[in-house]
């Protein structure tokens, strides 16, 4: 593990440890419960057994990797990778506190270049919310295939952000097609906020790793990399918004690459625009009937035995 952190690291540690739930004492446990359910589904699909070797790519705070050890016990060996040295140190510390450090190995590397992981050395590869940030998903899937033993499995879970980008693009198309005074003055502000968090043109979507793929592309890329017996489930959950209050909204963001509204408002809005934005958005955020949509793809596949 590299001892140093780079500013890039901070995107991941800042989001994972603080910004995903805005450090809100009400939101944090609810958010944790929700992602633990996803991790459990990844582990159910992984079919782990005692004595296996697991590679958890982009482990973050060890959500999947450490949970796998809790599930299987002391015979499971887990390699955990990530691009954030800070998160790897944090997770190493967690493993030590849990008394499982000697079952863990931490590797500072990208998903598409699994340096230090030998060919055909692991039984299962897991990821949760990682591939979405990887520009070259095809190369990552090929790396997963390389390190897996014949017959080994992948169990992945990735958010699907394409619809969020497409609705942001639709908003831009609407704004571009009408004279400014024909629209409510809130509409350009809505677009400015959304466009700071998601790509809003066809060209930007094409270039964005988080938006330029759908769940079907995940299947296609995994199949193209050489996997067999593929199975994908798309979960679309329309649920009560988990954001508990206006402060939490301002200081959170939907993914690590998105700035929080507090920064967008400070950098891109005038005082009058901030006032208008809050007057429309705050009642919506604080309305307990507000809903949000989450799209999540669960993919499993096997490395052929011959
Ligand atoms: C949203 S977090 C998810 C963390 C963890 N898997 C979880 O389920 O909580 C994204 C993680 O992906 C890692 N990551 C980002 N880009 C990566 C890349 N190119 N290769 C490997 N890991 C990456 C980050 O270090 C971060 O830990």
Tell me briefly what this model is.
This protein is an alpha/beta fold and 306 residues long.
Shape: globular
* Number of helical regions: 12
Mean pLDDT: 95
The low-pLDDT segments are: 1-5
CATH class of the largest domain: Alpha Beta
Find the CATH superfamily of the largest domain.
Vaccinia Virus protein VP39
Bound molecules: S-adenosylmethionine
Q: What is the level-2 CATH architecture name of the largest domain? A: 3-Layer(aba) Sandwich
Secondary-structure-derived class:
alpha/beta
Could you describe the largest sheet, including whether it forms a barrel?
7 strands, mixed
Radius of gyration from the alpha-carbon trace, in angstroms: 21 Å
Order of helices and strands: HHEHEHEEHEHHHHEHHHE
Beta strand %: 15-25%
Indicate the percent of residues in helices: 40-55%
Number of domains: 2
């Amino acid at each position: 593990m590299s001892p140093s952190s780079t500013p890039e690291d901070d995107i991941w540690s800042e989001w994972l440890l603080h910004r995903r739930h805005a450090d809100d004492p009400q939101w944090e446990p609810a958010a944790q419960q929700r992602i633990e359910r996803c991790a459990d589904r990844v582990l159910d699909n992984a079919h782990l057994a005692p004595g296996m070797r697991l590679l958890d790519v982009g482990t973050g705070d060890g959500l999947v990797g450490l949970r796998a050890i809790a599930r299987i016990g002391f015979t499971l060996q887990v390699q955990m990778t990530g691009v954030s040295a800070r998160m790897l140190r944090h997770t190493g510390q967690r493993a030590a506190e849990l008394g499982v450090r000697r079952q863990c190995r931490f590797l500072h590397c990208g998903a598409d270049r699994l340096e230090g992981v030998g060919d055909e050395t692991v039984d299962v590869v897991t990821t949760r919310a990682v591939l979405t940030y990887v520009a070259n998903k095809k190369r990552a899937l090929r790396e997963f295939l390389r390190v897996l033993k014949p017959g080994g499995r992948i169990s992945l879970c990735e958010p699907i952000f394409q619809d969020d980008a497409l609705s942001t693009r639709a908003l831009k198309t609407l704004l571009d097609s009408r004279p400014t005074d024909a629209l409510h003055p809130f509409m350009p502000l809505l677009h400015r906020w959304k466009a700071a968090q998601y790509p809003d043109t066809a060209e930007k979507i094409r270039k964005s790793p988080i938006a330029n793929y759908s769940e079907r592309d995940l299947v296609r890329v995994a199949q193209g990399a050489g996997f067999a017996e593929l199975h994908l489930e798309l979960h679309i959950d329309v649920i009560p918004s988990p954001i508990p209050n206006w402060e939490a909204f301002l200081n959170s963001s939907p993914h690590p690459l998105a700035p929080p509204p507090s920064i967008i408002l400070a950098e891109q809005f005038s005082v009058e625009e901030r006032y208008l934005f809050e007057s429309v958005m705050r009642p919506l955020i604080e309305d307990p009937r507000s809903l949000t949509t989450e799209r999540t793809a669960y993919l499993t596949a096997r490395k052929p035995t011959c």
